[in-house]
Amino acid sequence: MIILKFGGTSVSEADGIRRVVDIVGRQRTRRPAVVVSALAGVTDRLLAIATAAASGGGDAALREWDELKERHRLLARTLFDVRSTAHRELEAALADVFRRTERGLRAAAARAECPAPCRDAIAATGEDLCAHCGMIVSEERFATATIVERSERTREIRIYDDIGCMLSAGSPRDGRIAARFVHDHESLSWIARSEEHTSELQSHV
Questions:
Q1: What is the greatest pairwise CA distance in the chain?
Q2: How many Cβ atoms are within 10 Å of 114's Cβ, its own excluded?
Q3: Which residue has the higher pLDDT, 193 or 190?
Q4: d(CA 205, CA 107)
Q5: Bridge partners of 148?
Q6: Percent of the chain as helix, strand, coil, to the nearest 5
Q7: pLDDT of 72-112, one tens digit each?
């Protein structure tokens, strides 16, 4: 295994992302573990937006947030054919990330405050957050997950920072739990009843 770490400047534009993909592709036989930072300047801007939202500048903060979202969507349109499955899947993933962060920004604006956990969650936009308590999932070996079937065609993967949060979350109101998963602490592989679901989860965490 080889660990490849790319900073924000490496993925700040489409050409840089293509170079990263090429580098990773050439290392596939070495089972690369890839660590990618946020786009250049994004983390600082997110923190500034959170501060503005909590300081009475909610409308201005949300306008800045819209600009930041568009930056990511433009990259997606540049990298993928908008008619492709890859683009649709990326847009869906971005929409989910944007929705969670926007909830935090609106809450900060409504309360006129953004305490440390709120700031951390906003700064961690794009990282996995526990679906129950909202904390960043920092220890993969403790992470658990469920697949929730919301309809015949819609399934949602929900990640938890440990088994306690998964059990505390209980049964979802918007669907049924199709499967539950925990990590093997040594191999970090998902332990699940279905290999199909296991491979799907591995692409999300």
A1: 52
A2: 24
A3: 190
A4: 26
A5: 156, 177
A6: 55, 15, 30
A7: 999 999 999 999 988 998 898 888 888 878 888 988 888 88
Q: Calculate Rg over the CA atoms of the chain.
A: 18
- The Cα 17–Cα 23 span in angstroms is 10
φ, ψ dihedrals at 144, nearest 5°: -130, 170
Question: Each residue of 135-147: b (16+ CB within 10 Å) or e?
Answer: bebeeeebbbbbb
Report CA 75 to chain centroid distance, whole Å: 17
Query: What pTM, to 2 d.p., does this model score?
Result: 0.64
Determine the Cα–Cα distance for residues 161 and 140; give it in Å rounded to an integer: 8
Checking DSSP bridges between strand 155-160 and strand 144-149, what pairing results, if any? antiparallel
Tell me how far apart the terminal alpha carbons of the chain are, to the nearest angstrom.
18
Distance CA 132, CA 166 (A): 7
